[in-house]
Task: inverse folding
């Protein structure tokens, strides 16, 4: 399953709404990216959402 390794963000569900307001099912998928990070001096590959990647970049600077 698509899931962020940092915050646990996964697919959420909702509806498409047409002009007539008819509801059809749809899913909202997180913007997941494969990233290489340094943890305890070792390179680790993780799947993170874009929001977590942005936050990690801000905390490192």
Result:
């Amino acid at each position: 399953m698509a899931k962020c390794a940092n915050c646990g963000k996964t697919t959420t569900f909702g509806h498409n709404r047409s002009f007539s307001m008819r509801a059809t099912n749809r899913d909202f998928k997180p913007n997941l990216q494969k990233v290489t990070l340094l943890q305890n001096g070792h390179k680790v590959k993780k799947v993170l959402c874009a929001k977590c990647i942005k936050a990690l970049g801000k905390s490192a600077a």
About this structure: The first helix runs from residue 50 to 60.
